[in-house]
Design brief:
The strands form 3 sheets. Strands 3-9-8-7-6-4-5 form a 7-stranded mixed β-sheet, with helices on both faces. A 3-stranded mixed β-sheet has the order 1-2-11. It has a 3-stranded antiparallel β-sheet with strand order 10-13-12, covered by helices on one side. By secondary structure, it is α/β, with parallel strands linked by helices. The chain folds into 2 domains: 123 residues, Aspartate Aminotransferase, domain 1; 235 residues, 3-Layer(aba) Sandwich (Aspartate Aminotransferase, domain 2), CATH 3.40.640. The chain is globular, with a radius of gyration of 21 Å. It contains 15 helices and 13 strands. The structure holds pyridoxal-5'-phosphate (PLP). Pyridoxal-5'-phosphate (PLP) binds next to helix 5.
């Protein structure tokens, strides 16, 4: 049998990506994340591709909180949580997260990716069954791969009837775990949490919601998809990121019952064997949540910007599905064409990223517009002018 070396196959893959026009160039930003960013090769452009939904990444109070954290606790924890890595700022940010998500307790991780892997890998037992929405985020998929349950099932996207059939067929499992994104990151669609809560009650299942794109965005007071769906306090487990609306630095969390969090402290491998959240990140995230709790100014501003951009794009003839989220996918189909369109928008001063395979299925390439509360009315006008130009 002839062998292809790692070097040869890597070069062949990179060449094929370049030839197909789907090679991802990393762009370098030389200043802070905001409504606009400064790209090293292009100068200042409006940023419609970050998850800085509430504009908190560069909010003076959030930045100050990080400075204060650095000053009081220095650079990092230099340890995992259970040895000597648990600091007062961990307890404080976790209490704030628990209160905000209407849960008993929370545990932070260095990312939501870690949080999902930690959670699913720890709680799902050998005689359990997992039911995962087909469009769930990659971190949920990998988390499911880390567990070894009796059954690992994928139900059709947002399809309660399909989920119900699968739940019914697995009533002999010790525990049933239904897992969904709150807001699906490539579609901007919202999970029907009221239906899922109901199904979980009827079939004695537990519901896990990854609200990374919902928290800070949805709900009257920004408490996320559970608030939007009127089931706040009824979701068993919520995971989320601190790297998007809630300050944008990094970090993730699991929030749920006190027993669940105790179990994770005892058993979850990413917290047992990996360093804890650093003080800058924990302190800035805590302040970001406090700003959302203080009033609804930013959430209201985000909602107004979403409405203006959605309506404006629809008026220009772009097909945008109805959704309350800050994610507006514009379907293009062909990946190279999507990349060409995003290049054209960049020339017009608006940064929108094109997504193709493997992030989305082949043939379903799209431009993904992400709206921020930081955008001024003038910047929204500029965005719509640029889209008019493509
Ligand atoms: C739904 C969802 N979950 C988890 C993550 C991972 O979050 P983090 O960047 O904190 O690891 C993302 C990030 O893109 C996401 O969209």
């Amino acid at each position: 049998m002839s062998h292809v070396s790692f070097e040869d196959r890597t070069q062949a893959l990179l060449k094929s990506l370049r030839d197909a026009g789907t090679y991802k160039e990393l762009r370098h930003i030389s200043g802070p994340m905001g409504a606009t960013v400064t790209l090293e090769d292009r100068g200042e452009v409006i940023c419609l591709c970050s998850n800085n939904y509430l504009g908190l990444s560069n909010h003076p109070e959030v930045v100050q909180a990080a400075h204060d954290g650095l000053k009081q606790y220095a650079a990092g924890t230099a340890s995992v949580r259970f040895i000597c890595g648990t600091f007062a700022f961990h307890r404080e940010v976790e209490e704030t997260i628990a209160e905000f998500t209407a849960t008993e307790a929370a545990l932070t991780y260095v990312s939501c990716w870690c949080a999902n892997e930690a959670l699913i890998g720890t709680v799902v037992g050998r005689n359990d069954a997992i039911f995962s929405d087909e469009l769930n985020h990659a971190s949920i998929i990998d988390g499911c791969r880390l567990s070894r349950p009796l059954e690992r099932m994928v139900y059709a996207h947002r399809d309660g009837a399909d989920l119900e059939t699968k739940l019914k067929a697995n009533m002999d499992a010790d525990a049933r775990w239904v897992i969904t994104d709150g807001v699906f990151s490539m579609e901007g669609a919202v999970a029907n949490l009221a239906e899922l809560v109901d199904l979980c009650k009827r079939y004695d299942a537990r519901l896990i919601v990854d609200d990374s794109h919902g928290v800070g965005v949805l709900g009257r007071t920004g408490r996320g998809t559970p608030e939007h769906c009127d089931v706040l306090g009824q979701v068993d487990v919520i995971t989320g990121t601190l790297g998007k609306a809630l300050g944008g630095a990094a970090g993730g969390y699991v929030a749920g019952s006190r027993d669940l969090i105790d179990l994770l402290v005892q058993r979850s491998r990413p917290s047992l064997f990996s360093n804890a959240l650093p003080p800058t990140v924990a302190c800035s995230a805590k302040r970001a949540i406090e700003l959302v709790q203080r009033d609804t100014v930013l959430v209201d501003r985000l909602r107004a910007n979403i409405a203006r951009i959605r309506t404006g794009l629809a008026d220009l003839g772009f097909e945008c599905q109805e959704s309350p989220t800050a994610i507006i996918p514009i379907m293009i189909g062909d990946e190279a064409e999507a990349i060409r369109k995003s290049e054209r928008l960049l020339e017009l001063g608006v940064w929108v990223v094109a997504f193709g395979y493997p992030v989305v299925p082949k043939g379903k390439a799209r431009l993904r517009v992400q709206v921020s509360a930081a955008l001024t009315d003038e910047q929204v006008d500029q965005v719509l002018d640029a889209f008019g130009g493509v």
